[in-house]
């Protein structure tokens, strides 16, 4: 069981607001301040500083937060393993991975372990990392960017990231480069999604932005984007696994860009130095072997 002062510290780190932390913990703000001062006295360092009204973690607080959140998650995981007879697995995945990559290996995992109970959360990378911090999930498979200092990780697979269109879409260039596509109508995921984040990063590296396209439509559902692209309403960028079926049956084509050999990692992440990391690595190895 974690010390009540530790719980207060973790909550302040997550909210960066003493008042919000007090509200979440159902205690008074002076009690929050007292708990933090007691920890600062115990560890002999300052944990939070204020710039104006903005609360900020010190370098020491960031290190302590990483250690304690990992410990908190491991304790929670241990309690579940003691009190729950069936094996349970709580994890998260981004939409692309959860909908288009994991179904087959998860099916094999459930077949190999009939007593296994799965609970998979779908969300964007930042939502899943917050769930990891809170101990709501054991690990996550993500496509977005994350702090390697804060989490342990292992690459699941290197995924091609491609431009796609309807076979009959009237592209303005026969052998296009990325800049030639700026004359096209672009259909993209919403901000915060992993696919959008990767595209933003690729364009930024070339001094470009999504707003440079002639017309931009934002759609939060990948299947809807695929349907619109197939109906010649624009082009889009996908991980190949998302459109593999449509490419094979000829409903979509890859736009053969001369200057766009882009790959991005799907990554398996868990809390830093977790006691259960070997168990997580075994699950990852199984999923890799059955994709």
Can you characterise this structure?
The chain is α/β, with parallel strands linked by helices and 291 residues long. The protein is 45% helix and 22% strand. The protein has 3 domains: 4-57, Arc Repressor Mutant, subunit A (Orthogonal Bundle), CATH 1.10.10.10; 76-151 and 270-289, D-Maltodextrin-Binding Protein, domain 2; 158-264, Periplasmic binding protein-like II (D-Maltodextrin-Binding Protein, domain 2, 3-Layer(aba) Sandwich). The chain has 11 helices and 11 strands. A hairpin with a 2-residue loop joins strand 1 (48-51) and strand 2. Helix 1 (4-15) crosses helix 3 and helix 6 (103-112) crosses helix 11. It is globular and about 70 Å long. The two termini are 39 Å apart. The model has no long low-confidence stretch (mean pLDDT 87).
* Total individual domains: 3
Report the CATH topology name of the largest domain.
D-Maltodextrin-Binding Protein, domain 2
User: Number of helical runs?
Assistant: 11
Assign the CATH class of the largest domain: Alpha Beta
Query: Uncertain regions: pLDDT < 50 for 5+ in a row?
Result: none
Mean pLDDT, all residues = 87
The helix/strand series, from N terminus to C terminus, equals HHHEEHEHHEHEEEHEHEHEEH
As a percent range, the share of strand residues is 15-25%
């Amino acid at each position: 069981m974690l010390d009540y002062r530790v719980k207060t510290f973790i909550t302040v780190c997550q909210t960066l607001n003493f008042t919000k932390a007090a509200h979440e913990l159902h205690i008074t703000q002076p009690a929050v301040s007292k708990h933090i001062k007691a920890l600062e006295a115990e560890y002999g360092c300052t944990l939070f500083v204020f710039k104006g009204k903005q609360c900020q973690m010190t370098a020491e607080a960031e290190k302590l937060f990483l250690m304690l959140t990992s410990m908190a998650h491991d304790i929670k995981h241990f309690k579940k393993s003691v009190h729950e007879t069936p094996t349970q697995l709580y994890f998260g995945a981004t939409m692309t991975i959860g909908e288009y990559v994991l179904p087959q290996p998860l099916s094999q995992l459930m077949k190999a372990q009939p007593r296994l109970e799965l609970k998979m959360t779908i969300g964007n990378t930042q939502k899943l990392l917050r769930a990891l911090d809170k101990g709501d999930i054991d690990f996550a498979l993500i496509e977005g960017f994350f702090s390697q200092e804060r989490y342990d990780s292992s690459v699941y697979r290197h995924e091609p990231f491609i431009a796609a269109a309807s076979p009959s879409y009237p592209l303005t260039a026969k052998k296009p480069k990325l800049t030639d596509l700026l004359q096209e109508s672009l259909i993209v995921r919403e901000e915060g999604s992993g696919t959008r984040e990767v595209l933003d990063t690729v364009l930024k590296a070339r001094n470009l932005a999504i707003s440079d396209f002639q017309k931009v439509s934002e759609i939060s559902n990948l299947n809807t984007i695929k349907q619109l692209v197939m109906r010649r309403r624009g082009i889009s960028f996908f991980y190949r696994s998302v459109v593999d079926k449509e490419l094979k049956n000829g409903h979509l084509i890859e736009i053969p860009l001369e200057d766009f050999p882009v790959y991005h990692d799907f990554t398996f992440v868990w809390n830093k130095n977790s006691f259960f990391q070997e168990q997580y690595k075994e699950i990852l190895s199984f999923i890799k072997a059955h994709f």
